[in-house]
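Key result, reporting period 2: structure in, sequence out.
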């Protein structure tokens, strides 16, 4: 893979909620990480956006996501994330929100076929499709996804795809952790999303990109008034 462009990075935080209900989690989130002080602290270190997702309408075909929540943040650089999570107050806030969580930093996959399309005015719903799995070679994985995604773009758009992005996990230097690929899609149709992911014409070749079994999950914006930016 070529030297990465100095783009902003994606932070995913997926965890099991400690509060018993989504509403209780929303209130606690808005009082801690989503408070004006919390937002200001994150922004000062380079957090450009923060979105909150709950499991999709029909859950996950492969993994039980009940009780989970997903944060998607765009940061200007990885160092800001490191500094943010080095703050003891941030650690304490996280321990109130999740019983377990996994923060992961991703860089955009250079040479991947990624795109953003405008939403039709009448299609206001949003759904998130995510696939994550280990890879042996970023170049090979990106090439496989690129070929499949180019062929599928018309069908995907007709079914309601708004954006498609590919990311590669950023492991610490000298880390022995496996490389991983993350595919992230935003849709305006839940049924169209399900139809597309079940279409072997699109997904048949993607399994070859992974060196192990990938995990897929479906999400939607968490209900209620969450502090997002």
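The corresponding designed sequence is given below.
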């Amino acid at each position: 893979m070529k030297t990465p462009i100095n783009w902003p990075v994606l932070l995913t935080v997926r965890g099991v909620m400690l509060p018993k209900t989504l509403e209780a989690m929303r209130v606690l989130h808005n009082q801690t990480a989503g408070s004006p002080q919390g937002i200001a602290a994150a922004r000062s270190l380079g957090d450009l956006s923060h979105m909150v997702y709950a499991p999709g309408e029909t859950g996950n075909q492969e993994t039980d996501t009940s009780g989970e929540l997903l944060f998607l943040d765009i940061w200007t650089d990885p160092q800001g994330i490191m500094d943010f999570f080095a703050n003891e107050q941030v650690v304490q806030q996280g321990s109130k929100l999740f019983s377990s969580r996994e923060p992961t930093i991703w860089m955009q996959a250079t040479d991947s076929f990624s795109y953003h399309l405008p939403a039709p005015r009448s299609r206001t719903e949003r759904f998130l499709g995510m696939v994550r799995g280990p890879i042996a070679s970023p170049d090979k994985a990106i090439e496989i996804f690129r070929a499949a995604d180019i062929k599928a773009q018309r069908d995907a758009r007709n079914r309601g795809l708004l954006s498609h992005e590919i990311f590669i996990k950023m492991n610490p230097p000298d880390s022995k952790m496996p490389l991983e690929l993350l595919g992230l899609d935003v849709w305006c149709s839940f049924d169209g999303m399900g139809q597309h992911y079940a279409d072997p014409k699109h997904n048949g070749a993607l399994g070859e990109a992974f060196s192990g079994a990938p995990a897929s999950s479906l999400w939607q914006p968490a209900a209620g008034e969450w502090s997002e930016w």
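Residues 59-64 have pLDDT under 50 and may be disordered. The radius of gyration is 18 Å. This case is discussed further under Risks and Mitigation.
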